[in-house]
Amino acid sequence: MKIKTNIFFPLIFGAIAGFISGLQANGNLQQPTKLTPQQILKKIRAAFQAETPVQDSWINMQPQHFQRFALKADVYRGGISRLEDQQLIQYDFLADANTGSVLELKRSNYLKNPIASN
Question: What is the pTM of this model?
Fold first, then answer.
């Protein structure tokens, strides 16, 4: 009894194609996804909003290279303004472009009091 190889060719070809597709899909799933600047700003703004209302916020749309000692990262620079004790206070931040983690946060300056006292 002779086994025809033409019968098994589509089965073998399908198995190999499925295996290669599975490897490719696995590689795509394991690549880290980069957050957009809007997603990062929304995350940081929500953290500030939990304490007191935010008046204004901004973020640069182009990532910058950042290095402090051995730490190297691409970061987004941005800022948040909010009222504290009836004064508008501004905070500047650096956020990691991949994770959105805040790497640096500085209370930058005191802005003029938006609430006029009588």
Answer: 0.65
